[in-house]
Amino acid sequence: MRYRFGTLQQSLFAYYSAVFIIFSLIVAGLLYVFLASDIRHRSEEQQRQLGVSIVSNLDQEVVKMNNFSMNIVYSNLVKEHFSHYLAPAEDSEQTRTSDPALYKDTTTLIDVILAIISSSNTAKQANIYDVNGKMLGAGAFNGQLSVDLTKRPWYKETWERSGWRVIQLLEGSFAHANR
Known about the structure:
The chain has 179 residues and is an alpha+beta fold.
């Protein structure tokens, strides 16, 4: 059934309105598709750039931690005092409280490591472990502890990698690096 308009004016208005509405819907649809595609493309690019930036910053932090640990490992003062610190453990069961010289080496070693820590904001704590199960800490914890290295979460992988750096998530921290 065909609808009849009473006047030419009503007929023209209805046809032009229909054409305008259809044209507007087509333009709106095309505009929506174009803008949605453009926004999606820009979002993907921004996420890619953010990912690249995060990876770059993490790489820089790993390099800083590596330099930090190398500063400790290759410090002549650390080597000297750590060798004195290890000597009693190899000879006898002396503790740092029974031997004033050992206590002096321990505190000097902690002071040297603290000086290295304070020169950078890379780490707030540095621990040095010996093969006899002792850990000497400097930073948030200053002192010596007896530890079972085999129960440390990084020990097995570090041993398998011949002492090379291991980066992994630990309880409550973002990443851990050691050498």
